[in-house]
Amino acid sequence: MQTPAQWANGIPGKADSDQSAVAQDGWWTALGDEALDTLMSATLQDNPSLAVASERVEGAKAATAAVRAQQLPRMNLSGSASRAKSQNPLSQGAPYTLMIDTASVGPSLGWEIDLWGRLRESARAAQLRLDEEVADAQSARLSLEAQVANTVLGLRACRYSLSARDEDIASRETELSLMRLRLAAGSAAPVDEANALTNLAAARTARIAVQEQCAESVDALVALSGRDAAFVAALVAAPLARREEGDFCMPSPAGCPMEGVMPYAPALQPIMPATVLLAHPVVIAAEREAAASWSDIGVARAQRLPQIDLAALLSGQWLRALGTGAHFDLWSAGASLSGPLFDGGAGAANVRGSEARYRQAVANLRSVLRSTAQDIEDALAAQSAAEERTLTAGHELEAAQVTLRANEERWRAGAISMFELQIARRQLTNANEDAIAAVRDRAIAWVNLVRASNSTLQRADEHRMGSLSSTHDVDAGPTFTSYTW
After folding, report:
1. Which of 159, 172, 182, 344 has the fewest beta carbons under 10 Å from its own?
2. What are phi and psi of 383, to 5 degrees?
3. How far is CA 409 from each of CA 177, 185, 404, 412, 423, rounded to the nearest angstrom?
4. pLDDT single digits (tens) 226-269
5. pLDDT tens digit string along 381-433?
6. Which domains does the chain have, with CATH numbers?
7. Residue 344 region, left (φ>0) first, then alpha (ψ -120 to 50), else beta?
């Protein structure tokens, strides 16, 4: 599978420091949003989906330990004690009653000789599936972090949109009042008043839809963080701290028009070599499943071969009867051989099934590689488009501000009417909405690029996840480098 050239060669003009801005835990702090930091901390401390992922990892650890234990000798301790009463009324002499006390205790040892690698491959498959669960947990955490960040960004933009629509509604109410004055003076037709009423009703309807979106965003953050709605709403309503102009501001002469309203994502063009795919937790999980499926084939083949078990027994026996006691020791040691003689083809069917599951896992790995590459490409395209929209929206906003200031001067001079001034104000309101949407989309595109490229985990986990290079073939099998945990 070909890797895009821009991943292998990097982005010209960008230094490694651009990548290090997010290649660490707490990547969202680069946005400088205290509300996001607080809600993210609450989400990561107590979230059901993270708890489920964590318990899956613990379950996989326990399963791995249980499988590894099968490679070691097994030692058991057994003991017993009994009392028996025996009567013989038909004896030649007088009838008698016999009391017999017996007791025994001792250890036993069993050990399977892993000649064909069944236990070894079982342990390896269990370890690989543990790695898979760890990678899945990392992917779940990163997806959750991106969800929280995008929801906070969406809520901030939604709140600003409400303010812009309130200004638009006020402007349309003023327009309606002017239209009614003109209608009373005979300089306007009734249809003009009806049009103004229609525009006002449409603006109010649109505001209701935006208000519903804001409420849904608050509810989503409540479900994610476990905090109450009033706390979330108050937290996001607080203005952002001012930041230095630069990569965090709109790249236009308008400067930072959304300062205090929306966080500006840092300029990020990560230098992503082709190995970024192999460091992605989604790809790692798929690769570990393929490798574990290969080990399952070895287990299925070994189960068709004879099995050798070593066994040893040491037991102490005590017997007491007729007032006389006796003690003696028993021991035994040996080996047993067992294996299928005729299973009706079940063993061969198990091998074929394991091989089919392995081929399925390899196909899934290839699919995951392609989809992950596509996600990164889509995220890069979205970021590029969002940056261009931010630039054009900044120019639009600057032009709308200049137009409004000019029209205000013209209105004071009596050159235009209040009706024309209201049109300029609505243009500025629309430009403000376009600007906040562009800044929001730029920040969301940045978050999605972090999630798609796994930039936050690439360096932090490099020493744990290791690098891998594998070639999957049903006959030859995969070759993997060793992993250190």
Report:
1. 344
2. -65, -40
3. 22, 26, 9, 5, 15
4. 999 999 999 998 877 765 544 445 444 444 555 667 787 776 55
5. 888 888 888 888 888 888 998 998 898 888 878 788 777 888 888 888 888 88
6. 5-71+114-304+340-465 (1.20.1600.10), 81-113+309-339 (no CATH)
7. left
Strands 307-321 and 324-338: antiparallel
Output the six-digit token pair for 11. 């982005």
Residue-wise over 386-420: b if at least 16 C-beta within 10 A, else e?
A: bbebbbebbebbbebbebbeebeeebeeeebeeee
Which amino acid type is present at position 178? L
Question: Chain centroid to CA 145: how far?
Answer: 8
Question: Which structure tokens are listed for 314?
Answer: 């040491």
Distance (Å, rounded) from C-alpha 366 to C-alpha 375? Answer: 14
Q: Could you tell me the CA-to-CA distances from 346 to 252, 306, 313, 343, 445 in Å, in that order?
A: 71, 15, 34, 6, 53
CA atoms within 13 A on the CB side of 403: 17
Q: What is the pTM of this model?
A: 0.73
In sequence order, the 6+-apart residues with CB closer than 8 A to the CB of 47 are 144, 224, 225, 226
Q: Is 220 helix (H, G, I), strand (E, B) or coil?
A: helix
Sorted by sequence, the CB contacts under 8 Å of residue 290 that are 6+ apart come out as 358, 361, 362, 364, 365, 470, 472, 478
